[in-house]
Design a protein that fits this description.
Order of helices and strands: EEEHEEEEEEHHEHEHEHEHEEHEHE
Number of domains: 2
CATH class of the largest domain: Alpha Beta
Helix content: 25-40%
CATH superfamily of the largest domain: Medium-chain alcohol dehydrogenases, catalytic domain
CATH topology of the largest domain: Quinone Oxidoreductase, Chain A, domain 1
Distance between the termini: 12 Å
Shape: globular
Number of helices: 9
CATH architecture of the largest domain: Alpha-Beta Complex
Number of strands: 17
Length: 308
């Protein structure tokens, strides 16, 4: 099979388009023929070696954790899926080696759910990691309830756009930070946009004088500091970018594979409550270019690799 892999840590120059052996399929796994794979910041951070201190990695290392595709074979104990099923998956395993930037992926059933019928392959490939991050941050870490006011930092990005829509679907009022060029986009998602940067605290207070019930940080640093000033006395803070929130009772969110959560996301999509914005697509062979674009941090929505 063709796959995008690295044999050492480094920049885009270490990314290779290789012929590698087809993956083995375990008893509780299925073989997925990949149609699309989402590109996420964690992918190029793994490539750079930034996660080496906390994860076991083995070379050659196929990158990627997101996929959408078709089940081609099932393990002997699998009852959840059959050959021909269209699935989405956040296929993070205990060690980093066999990722989703490939034509074929062996995926444990705990990492998969059925593909929402309403989504294209590109949209479906961009949903799992970012969508789960948003869902687990809002529903599990912050326990957002209807009628609450939620502040979401970087609300127009890959995770942020999902978080905004999920919070709205939960019945919350959403205040989202973004550059001015993304304010109309945030309004279309149901959020009240505010400009990030200097003066953010005052701008949010003008919209929510009594403070916000919950803050979801996707940036770190000053966004966490602003959140501390803006949440109510019993308010909650969660971050995917800054572990310092643990020091004052906040939640640090690192997305976990969860079939039930993936299915809940798919249900939101099929109910018309959650849309997937694809910023652009690349063929699998151009994964290095896709990662470079992701590293610039300026895209609205998801970057996705398409696999022929």
């Amino acid at each position: 099979m063709k796959a995008i892999a690295i044999n050492t840590y480094g920049g885009p120059e270490v990314v290779e388009y290789l012929d590698l052996p087809d993956p083995k399929v375990g008893p509780d796994s299925v073989l997925v023929r990949v149609r699309a794979a989402g590109v996420n910041p964690v992918d190029w951070k793994i490539r750079d070696g930034r996660l080496d201190a906390v994860t076991d990695a083995h070379f050659p290392l196929i990158m990627g954790w997101d996929l959408a595709g078709v089940v081609e074979r099932v393990g002997p104990s699998v009852t959840e899926f059959t050959v021909g099923d269209e699935v989405i998956g956040y296929v993070r395993k205990d060690a980093i080696q066999h990722g989703t930037y490939a034509e074929l992926v062996s995926a444990p059933v705990r990492t998969l759910a059925r593909k929402p019928a309403a989504l294209s392959w590109a949209q479906a490939g961009g949903l799992p990691l970012a969508g789960l991050t948003a869902y687990q941050g809002l529903v599990k870490a912050l326990a957002v309830q209807a009628g609450e006011t939620v502040l979401i930092h970087a609300a127009a990005g890959g995770v942020g756009s999902f978080a905004t829509q999920i919070a709205v679907a939960l019945g919350a009022r959403v205040i989202g930070t973004a550059g001015e060029h993304n304010h109309a986009y945030l309004r279309s998602l149901g959020a009240e946009p505010v400009q990030y940067g200097d003066g953010l605290v005052e701008r949010v207070r003008a919209l929510a004088p009594d403070g916000v019930d919950a803050a979801f940080d996707l940036v770190g640093g000053q966004a966490v500091h602003a959140s501390q000033q803006l949440v109510k006395q019993q308010g909650r803070i969660a971050s995917i970018a800054d572990g310092s929130v643990l020091g004052f009772g906040g939640h640090y969110v690192f997305v976990r594979p969860d079939a039930a959560d993936l299915a809940a996301l798919a249900d939101l999509v099929d109910a018309g409550r959650l849309a997937v914005t694809v910023a652009c697509t690349f063929p699998l062979a151009q994964a290095a270019s896709a990662q470079q674009l992701s590293a610039e941090g300026r895209t609205r929505g998801k970057i996705v690799l398409l696999v022929d």
